[in-house]
Specification:
Helices cover about 30% and strands about 40% of the residues. It starts with a strand and ends with a strand. It is of the alpha+beta class. The protein is elongated, with a radius of gyration of 22 Å. The strands form 2 sheets. Strands 1, 7, 8, 9 and 10 form a 5-stranded antiparallel β-sheet that branches. Strands 2-3-6-4-5 form a 5-stranded antiparallel β-sheet, sandwiched between helices.
């Protein structure tokens, strides 16, 4: 399967621009029905807001939608959608809610504000990559731990957790396509002194950016 990127979870952040309050929110979604249900709940929760602008992108059917929700055409929904597209995020819904503060922002100001609302919401959520991941356990000595954990991260491994017992056990996730090369490299840099066990392969969404 071709890897793809999604929000790592729900993210929310807010800011004020010329007395208008903007609240950006991001969710991972699997279907249009799920996106529309979340939109409905946002509109109900923020019924007193001036605008609930949104954009969403779905892998299923390669579909995307957006709404300016009463803002001038092209100043709100499209900028939100463009932020998601630039980050190559899919299966995502972003809603940016605006409470008008009485000062007009102009077309350029609106584009910047809605883009920023989407950007900070996505940053709050983080980004996960969905792909086949190889699950590994790397067992090393305490003397080796700091160096090898740094090398593993540099090689693209995600360290899920670390157990400190008689030795140190690192539970790792490595892209399956890079798994053999990773194992060979870690064996080489440790001069064959580590124990590296393959626990299986799973298609997972693993957080890669925060």
């Amino acid at each position: 399967m071709k890897p793809y990127r999604i929000p790592a979870g729900h993210g929310e952040s807010a800011f004020v621009e010329k007395k208008s309050k903007f609240i950006g929110r991001v969710w991972p979604v699997e279907s249009e029905q799920e996106a529309q249900a979340l939109l409905k709940s946002m509109r109900e929760a923020h019924w007193d807001a001036n605008h609930n602008v949104y954009g969403y992108i779905l892998r299923d059917g390669n579909s995307m939608r957006y709404s300016d929700d009463g803002e001038p055409q092209g100043t709100a929904g499209q900028p939100v959608l463009h932020v998601l597209e630039r980050q190559e995020i899919t299966n995502v819904l972003c809603v940016v809610t605006r409470y008008f503060g009485g000062t007009l922002l102009g077309a350029g100001g609106l584009v910047r504000a809605y883009s920023h609302g989407a950007k900070i919401a996505l940053e709050a959520a983080g980004i996960a990559e969905v792909r086949p991941w190889r699950q590994l356990e790397l067992i090393c000595t305490y003397a080796q731990y700091e160096r090898l954990s740094k090398i593993a991260a540099e090689q693209g491994a995600v360290i899920e957790h670390t157990d400190f017992g008689a030795d140190v056990t690192l539970s790792l996730l490595v892209s399956d396509s890079e798994g053999d090369a990773f194992c060979a490299h870690m064996t080489e840099v440790s001069a064959g002194t580590i124990l590296l066990e393959q626990m299986g392969i799973q298609e997972l969404a693993v957080k890669i950016e925060s």
